[in-house]
Amino acid sequence: MTVERTRAEETAPASAGASPIIQATDVVKTYDTGRVEVHALRGVSLTIQRGEMVAIMGPSGCGKTTLLNCLSGLDTIDSGLIMVGGADINRMSDNEKTEYRARRMGFVFQFYNLLPVLSSVENVELPLLVSGVSAREARQKALAALGAVHLGDWAEHRPGELSGGQRQRVTIARALVNDPKLIFLDEPTLGLDPAGQRQMLQLIRNLARQRGTTVILSTHFLDEVEQACPRVIILNRGRVVAQGTVAEMIRKAAAPRTGRFQVPSEMQETALTALKGARGVASAAYADGHDGSLMITLDEASLVTAQSGGAGMRGAITALMDAGVPILSFELEGSRLSDAFFSMTKED
Ligand SMILES: Nc1ncnc2c1ncn2[C@@H]1O[C@H](COP(=O)(O)OP(=O)(O)OP(=O)(O)O)[C@@H](O)[C@H]1O
Ligand SMILES: [Mg+2]
User: Fold this and answer.
1) DSSP label at 49?
2) Structural domain spans, the chain
3) pLDDT in tens, 321-341
């Protein structure tokens, strides 16, 4: 695939000429834990075009990891259909699936999954050795992949000697070493500071563009994603509740003036301090007689357009997340944005 074609697809992913690499229809996945049934995916339909970079977002437990596992054939589904590259992934035999995954997909899991006793280059060359590539060629390709993630000098180091961000980059090199058409990354920016998250997403985006790779990743961080991912799919409670560019989703919503956050009572002081310093937030206070509930109003500039109103709300949410405050529920006055984007009410 040429670079030109990839760029064209990225700028117009939904155009008539685009060709889907993944099509999911009404995917349902329920975990039976013995005591309770957990409805992790409740009828998810989505399409991902070749060469796209798409972020799956949503509150903890909404089904991001489950969705990535099902789309990549790592986990089976209860009902629905998942077509990958024109083939029904749930109809493949185990051997076919393993072969398909080894040849065409790359993975970065939510937790690093690097083998601690192997050096960076040994970790990266592992998938090649497993699929029968000669030791010499595997080493060559692994070193090139480490170079691509700017870790050429760290090839002989073990994971224990690397920072969290460096380890994440080793897993990205490992996911790319086979030159797959499709890579799945579950929270590749986990544990990084905002600048590190931005750099990581830019790195993934640049590598994917150069190679024409389709990227599907999950993450929690809106500001960082907005700059790197043309399209975002928001999941909540196992359903797709919104998708499009971040700017599109915000434009659709009315300009909010006030919002109300419910946070755990022991985190109220931390939350209040974080909200008072948040970008776009004019004031923050306890709501009268409403235990655990904090009210905010957005500043003047945030109210001029729906888009900057959304930016104010983003500032508040980002500030709470950065301060490690769980958002138990969230309401936004006069805005559909609350339903789609930030409806963080826990499963009842
Ligand atoms: N193997 C499993 N057995 C039982 N329940 C599971 C299993 N895996 C996930 N779940 C449940 O399915 C739901 C979705 O989980 P999932 O890991 O997909 O969420 P997530 O969006 O990736 O969350 P996070 O942001 O915390 O990683 C959760 O309620 C979770 O408890
Ligand atoms: Mg997850």
Assistant:
1) E
2) 3-244, 250-340
3) 888 888 877 776 644 443 444
Hey, is 242 helix, strand or coil?
strand
- For the domain 250-340, what is the CATH code? 3.30.70.100
- The C-alpha atoms of residue 327 and residue 336 are separated, in whole angstroms, by 18
Residue whose CA is closest, atom 12 of ligand 1?
A: 40
Q: Best substitution site from 35, 64, 110, 234 to test ligand 1's pocket, by max atoms within 8 Å of Cβ?
A: 64
Q: Distance from the CA of 148 to the center of ligand 1, in angstroms?
A: 32
Q: Is the pTM of this model over 0.90?
A: no
Residue with tokens 């409806």: 343
Q: Quickly state the pLDDT bin for 112 (edges 50, 70, 90).
A: low
Strands in 20-71 per DSSP E: 20-32, 37-49, 53-57
Residue of 36, 56, 62 best suited for mutating to test ligand 1, as the one with most atoms within 8 Å of CB: 62
- pLDDT (tens digit per residue) in 244-283: 887 776 655 545 567 778 888 888 899 999 988 888 788 8
The protein residue with its alpha carbon nearest to ligand 1, atom 24, reads: 60
Structure confidence at residue 55 (pLDDT): 92
The gap from C-alpha 310 to its chain's centroid, in whole angstroms, comes to: 20
Measured by CA distance, the residue closest to atom 31 of ligand 1 is 61
Which residue's CA is the nearest one to ligand 1's atom 25? Answer: 60
Cα-to-centroid distance, 231 and ligand 1 (Å): 23
Q: For the domain made up of 3-244, give the CATH fold.
A: Rossmann fold (3.40.50)
